[in-house]
Amino acid sequence: MLRLATTLGRVTATSSATFATAARVLAEDPMAAGPKDIPEKLTLTLATPDKALYENEEVYCTLIPSMVGMTGVLPGHVALVTELKPGVVVVQKESDGPKEQYFVPTGFAVVNDDSTLNINVPEAVPVADIDIEAARAAQTEYTNAFSAASTDEERARAQIGAELYGTMVLAASQDVFA
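Request: output the structure for the sequence above.
Response:
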């Protein structure tokens, strides 16, 4: 217990010293901690293994289906690395322009502090191109497979498929981001 108290004391002392240094720097130059110039546009790359839908293209904003929910990314966004869940990536080139929507099954997004966003996904399908009846049929098939599954692996595969196609049906049946 004494060792833990000693270690915590050093951590607290180090943290206090670091905070004091940061406070001094900010007092001298209040802009030292923040971005100086935020670009007007976000630079987007949205790529699948075989093609880039956007390659270093300037856009107004992008919405991504992160694991914590829909995340809006504008120029000046804090740096972020996030896994994507099945859902819709929305790209808006101009503030008053149309929104392009792509269904993605999974992937990763990396937001850099220089207002660049890189989205890497195994597949990206324009929402308008989704065959909703085929997606519903696949969802039903996976739901039935889940009910009939006899092993944990079969249940897991069926659950993933049912959730994926259920999200696809939802994306295709309503224009949530119009």
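The chain has three domains: 2-33, 42-127, 130-173.
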